[in-house]
């Protein structure tokens, strides 16, 4: 499915070339959506890092041109200077088919922006003495970590007892990004904890469990109490809220196909946060000011914990190294990436999910920064131009983060034409069930004359039969092949995505 596909192929960035007429039409529609939206930006020129300025009109022209050229459905841009919001505006569409424009209050998927909001809450608990950054996290649980089902595979590797909250926040635990990327789908430690950087969602999920154990409170309640409510983030939550229905954005894939919103039901510290441009900009202001933290705790959060020599951020466990980022002292703090420039220290975070691409970077000394949020899988292709034009930031490690500019991407492959066949409801019912593993479950349901598949509580994806065992998605390139035993029971599926074949076993024994 689409989300699964993005995680498996997170380093692929592809773009297609448009026919000139279509490009002009899209440009017109984007301009119309932008002009129809009341701007929160000031009319004064905006100061950039080097002291030069850029006018709101120049920002409008730049963003509109890039959205059209890179086929980005919608975006929100905020600029901060001296800790103040000096520009805040949304562009393009939250619903392309209905021509509904993105607004600064449209709820969007934060993706891994979630991690820094979570990290800030953790640092508040550190500030209060409830969490010790250097205490092995297994000691926070009432029984050995390896006795919990999701961590039983660590029993044979006692290095798990050396993992601390600091290592989970600076991504030095030794865990993969996600266990399902492993050939055997089992969680394991790949290097001595604390010895190197390797970005890990698994590490953040473990820290979530630590924090919930320490406080005896669920994550959503903690985030509302410590971050969202105090910072005025009234349209932000770790799970979907009914009030979001009035103004939300759909995510769109590389081909411009709608993936819908992510109506998450379970709080996930690694990526479930739903927020808006306005709310997340408020959060960045709070980080700049150190709101809710003592100065020394904030300084520790934004101090280098581990230097980064990996050639690329993804794939996370690649052994390739480089000295290319030594000059900017690329490193990781507690939840934040860090680098140094002639303008001082910068802290940054990216967010990447299927249909959603987000980026923020702030310069601590000047208290200047930018927030970029997009509801398009093509969003990363415009980061470089936006940073260099709007901020005069030529220092961000674009290549390390995998943000290939849209103009340098190869043409996107044409979509394969597929034709659905008709299968009787009784046959479709044979596929219904749950597939996957304890922390990643794909639920297959019948939807009239076709199936749907849903990863955990993420958006459903329709699947249409191309044969008696093979189903395809009409909004992604994913193909699912089901295998049957001698009793005509579907016991396994294989997901074909991005050139990979991912085997996913059935978890239950019957239809539901």
Summarize, please.
The chain is of the alpha+beta class. The chain has twelve helices and 23 strands.
Rough outline:
globular
- How many strand segments? 23
Number of domains: 2
Instruction: Specify the CATH class of the largest domain.
Output: Alpha Beta
- How far apart lie the N and C ends? 20 Å
Question: What's the story with the biggest beta sheet?
Answer: 9 strands, antiparallel
CATH architecture of the largest domain: 3-Layer(aba) Sandwich
Radius of gyration, rounded? Answer: 23 Å
Detailed description of the structure:
With 512 residues, this protein is α+β, with helices and mostly antiparallel strands. It is built from 12 helices and 23 strands. The protein has helices at 2-8, 20-36, 56-70, 113-127, 165-169, 201-215, 219-228, 277-289, 295-301, 383-391, 398-401, 425-428; strands at residues 46-47, 53-54, 74-81, 84-95, 100-101, 108-109, 251-252, 258-260, 274-275, 306-307, 331-332, 337-341, 344-353, 356-363, 368-374, 433-437, 440-447, 450-455, 461-465, 470-473, 479-484, 490-497, 500-505. A hairpin with a 2-residue loop joins strand 3 (74-81) and strand 4. Mean pLDDT is 91; it is low at 1-42.
List the keywords:
single chain; 512 residues; alpha+beta; Beta-lactamase; 23% strand; disordered N terminus
Question: How is the secondary structure organized here?
Answer:
Layout lengths: L1 H7 L11 H17 L9 E2 L5 E2 L1 H15 L3 E8 L2 E12 L4 E2 L6 E2 L3 H15 L37 H5 L31 H15 L3 H10 L22 E2 L5 E3 L13 E2 L1 H13 L5 H7 L4 E2 L23 E2 L4 E5 L2 E10 L2 E8 L4 E7 L8 H9 L6 H4 L23 H4 L4 E5 L2 E8 L2 E6 L5 E5 L4 E4 L5 E6 L5 E8 L2 E6 L7
Antiparallel strand pairs: 1-2, 3-4, 3-15, 4-5, 6-9, 7-8, 10-11, 11-12, 12-13, 13-14, 14-15, 16-17, 17-18, 18-19, 19-20, 20-21, 21-22, 22-23
Helix pairs in contact: 2-3, 3-10, 4-7
